Amino acid sequence: MSQQKPNDINDTSSSLSPKEPTSTSSSTSKETEPKPVVDQVEKESFSDRWKNNKFWLVRGSYHFLRTVWLIVMAIGGFIAWLISLLFI
After folding, report:
1. pLDDT for 13 beyond 60
2. What share of the chain has pLDDT > 90, as a percent?
3. Euclidean distance between CA atoms 69 and 63, whole angstroms
4. Are 74 and 82 in contact (CB under 8 A)?
5. Distance between CA atoms of residues 73 and 67, nearest Å
6. Helix, strand, coil proportions of the chain in percent (round to 5)?
7. Is residue 52 a contact partner of residue 62, using CB atoms and an 8 Å limit?
8. CA-CA distance, 51 to 58, in Å (whole number)?
9. Is 88 helix (H, G, I), strand (E, B) or coil?
10. Least confident span in 20-24, 32-36, 37-41, 60-64
11. 59 close to 53: Cβ distance less than 8 angstroms
12. What is the C-alpha to C-alpha distance for residues 75 and 65, in angstroms, rounded to an integer?
């Protein structure tokens, strides 16, 4: 049998030691740091501005039009459901 060399725990190999940067640029050049990401303020949507408007007429027209839209979509969904049942 061949003899194995015991692992030396105190051995400091070059792979574990910190290495110097191997940059080819001159040391006088300024390092570029990443720019911080600026949080962009999101604008309110058109419908949110109507819903939260200080004028009651604008708020009322928003709620009226939204109600009409919901009714139209519900009737359209029901009709689509009926048609899909007929052509199965």
Report:
1. no
2. 40
3. 10
4. no
5. 10
6. 40, 0, 60
7. no
8. 8
9. coil
10. 20-24
11. yes
12. 15
Amino acid at 12: T
Which two three-digit tokens encode residue 46?
């058109």
Structure tokens at 28: 């006088």
Please choose, from the candidates 50, 46, 44, the residue with its C-alpha nearest in 3D space to the C-alpha of residue 64. 50
Rounded distance between C-alpha atoms, residue 80 and residue 82, angstroms: 5
Q: Identify the residue whose tokens are 């009651």.
A: 56
- Please give the C-alpha separations between residue 64 and each of 8, 54, 67, 75, in angstroms, as whole numbers: 81, 16, 5, 17
* Cβ 62 vs Cβ 50: under 8 Å: yes
Long-range CB pairs of 33-36 (<8 Å, 24+ gap) are: none
> pTM of the full predicted structure?
0.49
